[in-house]
Amino acid sequence: RIGERVLLCSCSLTSMCRAGAIRTDDSCIVLKTLPCLVRMCSKERLLEERVEGAETLAYLIETDVELQRIASITDHLIVMLADYFKYPSSVSAITDIKRLDHDLKHAHELRQAAFKLYASLGANDEDIRKKIIETENMMDRIVNGLSESSIKVRLAAVRCLHSLSRSVQQLRTSFQDHAVWKPLMKVLQNAPNEMLVVASSTLCNLLLEFSPSKEPILESGAIELLCSLTQSENLALRVNGIWALMNMAFQAEQKIKSDILRGLSTEQLFQLLSDSDVNVLMKTLGLLRNLLSTRPHIDHIMSTHGKQIMQAVTLILEGEHNIEVKEQTLCILANIADGTTAKELIMTNDDILQKIKYYMSHSNAKLQLAAMFCISNLIWNEEEGSQERQDKLRDIGIVDILHKLSQSSDPNLCDKAKTALQQYLA
User: Fold this and answer.
1) Per the record, GO CC terms (predicted)?
2) Between 242 and 425, where is the model more confident?
3) Exposed (0-12), middle (13-18) or buried (19+): which is 158, by Cβ within 10 Å?
4) In the chain, how long is the greatest CA-to-CA distance?
5) Confidence of residue 99 (pLDDT cuts 50, 70, 90)
6) How far is 264 from 414, CA to CA, in rounded Å?
7) What are 389-416's pLDDT values in tens digits?
8) Which residues in 19-122 belong to E strands, given as ranges?
9) CA gyration radius, the chain
């Protein structure tokens, strides 16, 4: 059949394109393969061709922003895909079991293919996501897809939801209107790892501070679930678990922060801080930084977990870590230095003070600046005990370094050093 041959040819060109043998902007991809695959999605085609066409197109455009944009405006593809959810158009008589099985199988395949293609189309562009969500009953279809009997359809629906959850606007509107977090939380219970990875990635987006879903997700027991993910042997699940907790802790109430620390346990926190994967380490440091924000919270957390946190900070600053890891760790120290009582944990720890001094003279300006923030927070004049702290820091040579940095060619370092020196003169 001509349709089969055309599809086979398109599949081959798609594979070559994804393998890097053909450029994504080559005319045979943009002007032939992509339009051909879009035509395969029309309702005039055989069911098998529609499924294969949509799945191949999803794969072709998955990682290319320009191909996603071209596909979205070719032959009204976004609207055309809505027909995939309308099969079968009439329900077969219950007595015709063979026909019923056939219809169910094809209905699942069509829905799976449509969700996959919508996920690829909406991977990057905000306007495309908006068009997808505005397609008739789209959010209802995704919500229903998350509860499908077919695990393949459920996975494709989660992928589609994940793609659309990258939209700030949709998180605030459509996602809230349809309470997508409810079926998503169900998916996260006892799902296979492949689905857990995508579902937990979506949850990370739903837990961003501007998402109205954040509060109901918290109330549904998400902390316990996410803490358990951080113990997974699967790297992607560990990253997503700690990432979601980091988002949850951002500008959160003290109770939520305490619940996170209790759920994680100090032992698990140390485990994550010594993880061999830099993503896990960075997200864990990001979590700590979010937990240690606003003075009352900093003082409260450091009064209960101060010893362990200072120990972890010391280990990282002494370890063989990249600049970003050390910068994030120094920023955590700067937050601790901003506490009212917490700053004493730094001032009474000579080892930490020497490390801050060392990083003030480091060859990397980012680390110098982060160390300077620690010093600024420790010597600020308007705070109780500032004179004693200034005297101690002068004694260990901090003022001499500040004078040197005030002559720095880096304007940020220079300004920060001059501001710090003014605290001594005030």
Assistant:
1) cytoplasm; GID complex; nucleus
2) 242
3) buried
4) 92
5) low
6) 40
7) 999 999 999 999 999 999 999 999 999 9
8) none
9) 27
* Conformation bin of residue 77: beta by default, left when phi > 0, alpha when psi is -120 to 50: alpha
Q: What is the pLDDT of residue 176?
A: 75
- The amino acid sitting at 110 is L
Closest listed residue to residue 17, CA positions, set 32, 5, 6, 4: 32
Q: What is the rounded distance in angstroms from the CA atom of residue 416 to the CA atom of residue 402?
A: 9
CA 279 to chain centre: 11
User: In the block, which residue shows the tokens 């600020």?
Assistant: 380
Tokens of 62: 């998955």
DSSP H helix total and E strand total for the chain: 27, 0
pLDDT top residue among 230 and 5: 230
Q: What is the pLDDT of residues 261-298, one digit of tens each?
A: 999 988 899 899 989 999 999 999 999 999 999 999 99
In sequence order, which ranges of 250-343 are alpha helices (DSSP H)? Answer: 254-273, 278-291, 295-318, 323-337
Q: What would the DSSP string read from start to end of 125-177?
A: -HHHHHHHHTSTTHHHHHHHHTT-S-HHHHHHHHHHHHHHTT-HHHHHTHHHH
Tokens 């920023």 sit at which residue? 331
- Measured at the CA of 37, the angle between CA 31 and CA 41, to 5 degrees, comes to 135
The residue to which tokens 């098998």 are assigned: 48
Structure tokens at 347: 């001032």
- Output the CA–CA distances (angstroms, integers) from residue 393 to 252, 302, 331, 357, 414, in the order listed: 33, 22, 19, 9, 19
DSSP letter string, 205-258: HHTSTT-TTHHHHHHTTHHHHHHHHTT-SSHHHHHHHHHHHHHHHTT--HHHHH
